[in-house]
Amino acid sequence: MRHEELAALLAEPTAPLVRAALRVLPPRTLESLATVTGQAAEQAWRQVVVDRVRAFAAEQPGDGPQAVTAYFTATEQRTGSGTSVSWSPFIAALTPTEEMPDLRHTETTARMVPVGEAARAEEDFADPKLSEALHRLAAHDPPAHADVLRVHLPTSRVTRVKP
Question: Strand pairing partners for 61?
């Protein structure tokens, strides 16, 4: 395959062949690919989110209806270099319908979580691949505090919505 053909394929990340190839790339390779084409990398990270949410939904117990959507809320992270808003690595809601649940904060006070405690909780309870993909998506397109990330499993679409 010539370089021009590869560039043309990467410019069209929705093509089944390209999507399949991007799914199997390790995160570091995806990161390198981002320097070549940011759109393809962002699409690949979105696919990682969909794949990990789909795997999580499949592991849920019960004989009820299959999950259709999952939602992630934005979270503020404080580091030594400042504060940033990213996507929380924990699923805020996994629903069997396309109706968006009320994900507004129910409290008006904020509680400061020590940096080490937040990192430890993410390390212990979050899916590392999902967590990394969410952080990469936030780096590509930073969310606002009230934004919600919607993962629609039947169509594999990842979109940002305002509640």
Answer: none
Phi, psi for residue 111 in degrees, rounded to 5: -115, 125
Condensed to tens digits (0 to 9), the pLDDT of residues 28-68 reads 776 666 555 556 678 888 999 999 999 999 998 877 788 99
Q: SS3 sequence, the chain?
A: CCHHHHHHHHCCCCCHHHHHHHHHCCHHHHHHHHHHCHHHHHHHHHHHHHHHHHHHHHHCCCCCCCCCEEEEEEEEEEECCEEEEEECCCCCEEECCCCCCCCCCCCCCCCCCCHHHHHHHHHHHCCHHHHHHHHHHHHHCCCCCCCEEEEECCCCEEEEECC
